[in-house]
Design goal:
Number of helices: 3
CATH superfamily: eRF1 domain 2
CATH class: Alpha Beta
Shape: elongated
Distance between the termini: 13 Å
Number of strands: 7
CATH architecture: 2-Layer Sandwich
């Protein structure tokens, strides 16, 4: 029987639900992606001089790298599966889908992606069981 894993994810955390017969094992992973807000710049020492800007490009690049590390951590955790199902409320699942498509050595086959709201552990396990029973 194929090993099946469902991943509920958003930008803050992810839950990996692996099915083992009737039992569902739930693993929690934090994303460690910072939620930042740009603050104003600071004045130069010259009176009435120009205001220095904050580097939005630097902050966006930092977030992109943190998301890449998060997606690779999820892919490493789900690497032993045969089939994969992604679901969750945010667009993080689409980012993980792109990371999977770009990885040449990722073994599990992506079976589906669906939008889902916040769920309890039992609801997540039931959703994963329902998805894999239909396919």
């Amino acid at each position: 029987m194929a090993k099946q894993i469902g991943i509920w994810l958003d930008y803050k955390e992810a839950y990996l639900i692996s099915l083992d017969g009737e039992e569902a094992l739930v693993q929690h992973l934090n994303s460690e992606v910072e939620d930042y807000h740009l603050r104003g710049g600071s004045r130069s020492r010259t009176p009435w001089g120009p205001m220095e800007k904050t580097s939005e490009r630097r902050l966006l690049e930092r977030r992109r790298q943190q998301l890449q590390r998060y997606f690779h951590k999820l892919m490493d955790a789900a690497g032993e599966a045969d089939e994969l199902f992604l679901f969750g409320p945010a667009e993080a699942k689409k980012g993980l889908e792109k990371a999977i498509a770009g990885a040449s050595n990722f073994k599990p086959r992506l079976k589906g992606i669906e939008t889902a709201d916040a769920m309890t552990h039992n609801q997540m396990a039931a959703r994963v069981r329902h998805f894999f029973s239909q396919n």
